[in-house]
Design goal:
It comes from Clostridium thermosuccinogenes. This protein has ten helices and eleven strands. It is an alpha+beta fold. It folds into two domains: 169 residues, Jelly Rolls (Sandwich), CATH 2.60.120; 105 residues, Homeodomain-like (Arc Repressor Mutant, subunit A), CATH 1.10.10.
């Protein structure tokens, strides 16, 4: 996607069109996130690859070969190679969306019928290119993918490859299995897997409320000791580490939104001092919050 500066609140983009990155059978051309002002427009352009877009917030219109599609928060949108495409935010809302441009190397999957079907899906124009994602974890993975490109780390290329495959497959399954039900964990209170799910779900949805592990334990009805032991046993990391990581991810999201300064973000996430938040942020990302903001600019 070309960098159109006017009207953008922020854009984080990795552009590999000059030299696409190879991840097994996936050629990656671009991955990023755009947060635009209301009424902002991405001009008409020809798709040079397949593209997945996910509307994070706001509303607007996607145009494909002259046809108009209204998009809202939670929508997935598919484009294929050769389509004429433009995007326009609504007059009332800012528009924020994730995007990923790619192609699938058909020569590498010639003996895998299921992958060939997926290749054909992403290579074909769709009259109904909008769908809702069936899997919450896919949306979380899009955010993680952006963070992985930004921060890197041990085995980063393998992590990126696996997330790319998961996103592409999950989105494909969301489109072709629209009527199927989402499988959920069994609601057996004695199930360790169910308890773990409750912990993760509570953390993900109450980042502004949680100060310590005891807050999680009190709200889901298990002891802090049991939660901590179970979480580490099943995931290999501590509950505290997961909580801290999610809070830092949320702080990065809030920085990109540009509505609050660093002190306000630290307070919102229940850090006692700005120094404590800054120290934790640097431990997770390798740079301070102020340095992160400089790199965003």
């Amino acid at each position: 996607m070309v960098n159109y500066r006017d009207g953008k609140l922020f854009q984080y983009e990795n552009d590999f069109f000059a030299k696409p990155r190879k991840y097994d059978y996936i050629n990656l051309f671009q991955v990023g996130e755009l947060f635009s002002c209301h009424d902002y427009e991405v001009p008409l352009h020809e798709q040079l690859c397949s593209e997945i877009s996910y509307i994070i917030s706001g509303s607007g219109k996607f145009y494909v070969n002259g046809k108009e599609y209204e998009v809202n928060a939670g929508d997935l949108f598919i484009n294929c190679f050769g389509e004429q495409h433009r995007i326009k935010a609504s007059k009332q809302d800012n528009l924020r969306y994730f995007y990923m441009g790619f192609s699938i190397d058909s020569g590498m999957i010639s003996e895998k019928q299921d992958l060939i079907k997926m290749f054909e899906f992403y290579s074909t124009h769709h009259d109904q290119p909008i769908c809702h994602c069936k899997y919450d974890i896919t949306i979380s993975m899009m955010s993680r993918l952006i963070n992985e490109f930004y921060n890197g780390g041990e085995l980063s290329e393998f992590v990126i490859e696996n997330m790319l495959k998961q996103i592409i497959i999950d989105v494909y399954r969301s489109y072709v299995n629209k009527e199927s039900k989402i499988i959920k964990l069994p609601k057996d209170e004695a199930s360790a897997g169910n308890v773990l799910y409750k912990v993760i779900n509570y953390i993900d949805n109450h980042l502004y409320d949680i100060v310590k592990i005891e807050d999680i334990a009190r709200n889901i009805g298990y002891s802090p000791t049991y939660i901590s032991h179970l979480f580490r046993e099943k995931t290999g990391i501590t509950t505290q580490h997961y909580l801290i990581t999610k809070k830092i991810e949320k702080s990065i999201e809030l920085m990109h939104e540009g509505q609050r300064n660093i002190t306000e973000i630290a307070s919102l996430l229940n850090y006692e001092t700005l120094q404590s938040f800054s120290r934790t942020f640097k431990n997770i990302t390798g740079i301070s919050p102020s340095e992160y903001l400089k790199r965003m600019a």
